Amino acid sequence: MYQPVSSSAAAVIALLTDFGLDDNYVGVMKGVMSGIASGVPFIDLTHKIPPQDVIAGAWVLGTGYHYFPQGSVFVCVVDPGVGSERAPIALQAGGWYFVGPDNGLFHFVLADQTAKAVVRLTNRAYHLPNVSSTFQGRDIFAPVAAHIAAGQQLHELGEMIQADSLQQLELQQPLIKNDRIESEIIYIDQFGNLISSISLNLLPDFFERSGVRLLLAGKQLMITERRRFFAAPGNAQEPFLYVDSSGYIGIAIRNGSAARELNIQRGEAVTLLFNNR
């Protein structure tokens, strides 16, 4: 795994939301944070998470956070339960900090890193004075993230809680059997590439092993072609297997959308078959 340079101070504040950029939501959050953590740079991880898609947000965060310097603070807002009983939280996992709703958004981060501290954000001294029931990204998460970046300790932000009390996503974990790995499509990127939750670590010789093929059970479709890069020779319209930049096995169509052409949604069951040595 890529290891960024460590930093004792907040290197950046990174933002991940489903807000898009047509409205002023992202700009307002940055305005709030600028007034608290002056001089700390902002990086937009993405604001194009599909609306209310917590799983997609969790996946993008989980495959991207470790490229940032340790000490960075991630303010994450994909929050279909805003205004409900779901808790606003902040946590430290490894050397990074995360602020957002307790709705599974930090699922993949916590699968990768041990939580060192988790706090329910009950101390209103670190919120904006008037908290909206519909925009807690501005009124709670943004100011809290900025206070952390400015050096505030997590225990000062509210009530410390146990990491095992946090919401987890209900996802099928890859099931490894004798000659197969059963999994699902976990993410679809903007190009329509279908990303499974099968890490290359589960089959390191993916490109060398004989008999590798992937079954899309719901479509009764078997994909056998493997490519290391998209420009490799082959039928431009045929789906093929590849390994994405985060190390997960996916399905693509050259210059096309596999999701659209194959009519596949996230959650579709897949089985990676291979010959035993």
UniProtKB/TrEMBL annotation:
Record keywords: S-adenosyl-L-methionine
Cited InterPro entries: SAM_HAT_C (IPR046470), SAM_HAT_N (IPR046469), SAM_OH_AdoTrfase (IPR002747), SAM_OH_AdoTrfase_C_sf (IPR023227), SAM_OH_AdoTrfase_N_sf (IPR023228)
Protein's UniProt keywords contain Membrane: no
SUPFAM superfamilies on file: Bacterial fluorinating enzyme, C-terminal domain, Bacterial fluorinating enzyme, N-terminal domain
Residue span(s) of domain S-adenosyl-l-methionine hydroxide adenosyltransferase C-terminal: 184-271
S-adenosyl-L-methionine found in the keyword field: yes
Ranges for domain S-adenosyl-l-methionine hydroxide adenosyltransferase N-terminal: 13-158
Family: Belongs to the SAM hydrolase / SAM-dependent halogenase family.
Protein's name in the database: Adenosyl-chloride synthase
